[in-house]
Amino acid sequence: MxxxxxxxxxxxxDKNLFKIRTFFLFWPQLINPIYRPTNVIxxxxxxxxxxxxxxxxxxxxxxxxxxxxGDRRGVFTVSAPMESSRTLIQRPPIQIFNSTLLKFxxxxxxxxxxxxxxxxxxxxxxxxxxxxxxxxxxxRFGRPDVNSRNSKVSNGLSVMLRSPKFYRHWLxxxxxxxxxxxxxxxxxxxxxxLVRLVKVPMDIYHGLMSSDKKYKSCxxxxxxxxxxxxxxxxxxxxxxxxxxxxxxxIEKFEKNVGSKTSISFVNSNILxxxxxxxxxxxxxxxxxxxxxxxxxQQVHFMDYLVCNSSHKAPLLITDPRFDILCARIVKYxxxxxxxxxxxKALEQWGSTHDGxxxxxxxxMQAVMLAxxxxxxxxxxxxxxSTSAKHHYHTNQKSELRLHDYEAEYAFYHDxxxxxxxxxxxxxxxxxxxxxxxx
Length: 438
Prior knowledge:
Blueprint: H1 12-25, H2 27-30, H3 45-73, E1 75-79, E2 86-90, H4 99-105, H5 111-122, H6 155-162, H7 164-182, H8 194-205, E3 218-221, H9 233-237, E4 241-245, H10 254-257, E5 263-267, H11 268-274, E6 291-294, H12 300-308, E7 315-317, H13 320-342, H14 349-352, H15 362-373, E8 376-380, H16 405-417, E9 433-437
Parallel strand pairs: 3-4, 3-8, 4-5, 5-6, 6-7, 8-9
Antiparallel strand pairs: 1-2
Helix pairs in contact: 4-13, 7-12, 11-12, 13-16
């Protein structure tokens, strides 16, 4: 085989350059030490090592320089191909929260009442529970003795406790209540567990492969009367998942609110009313629509146990750690607004907002749920107008005092404009893109 010839009339330096180029041309073959073609001109190691050392030194210097510059300036650079310019991307600013407001919002004024009621339920002290001692599901287990009106403990409830079916529910009730009460604590990372706690069970029910991927798009549909002035129905139904609140009627309102329902989000008072119906019917959107519920009163766990057996679709209870997070966020915004608007002392907030009865709305927690399980969140029907009804499907005109809707509107505003201004949520959580339609 003829050997490669060097071009004539070249200087010694040109010959060395030719050898270097030949070396890099056959580099893949030189990797294998077993076979080396004899017709390859390989430069001496003495001339190659300086080149390799210089290249490695340049690369190391450039890497360390970029890291030092990034640490000092608080930015990192992204180089665009075929361009010499560089784009600077700022890190999110560190949000500084009011420590007094944080501490105030962290205190649950209803905690002592909650512990007392839980203890009474677990010890079966029904007489001390007043109007909450009679379960709405009593007709399923026994007929109360209406002649015993002077007894502190209902005879009807005694009949229920002697019923084997009710007694099995009662054992389950105590077990679930104990587990739920133990988990009632603050945990800022709970937002990152919502896919596992909520989406995965629903995927399994629908026969889908469970994964940690979020829904692509979600619409949270509120019940405000302002929806009657819109034609958002088709837009709402175009989302992968549609979340509706408290069994709001959609029949005859499809043009305004759409017709698709993927998740029914309710408070336990709704299920308590459903428990009075034959068959515990609570499916205005169809029996195959999953229901997610947050607990307003511990005694409603009995309604859950009874109705869950009649539900074909999943009936899920929100994690109490998620409830605590929502409560703290809303109280923070409410207290902040109270001080700024009224100019009164923070200690007077409780007398204005019913103290221990203060609670976030179903809509607020439904939005929080969507933040944890959706990549994009669209919010409809949140807001009010002097010319619109409180709810689009009822004649209710006034708001409940135990909610602070103005504070929740401030929370929604931050979701869109500056989500890092929202307190108590872990810095590890990545907020999705949020749009609010009015």
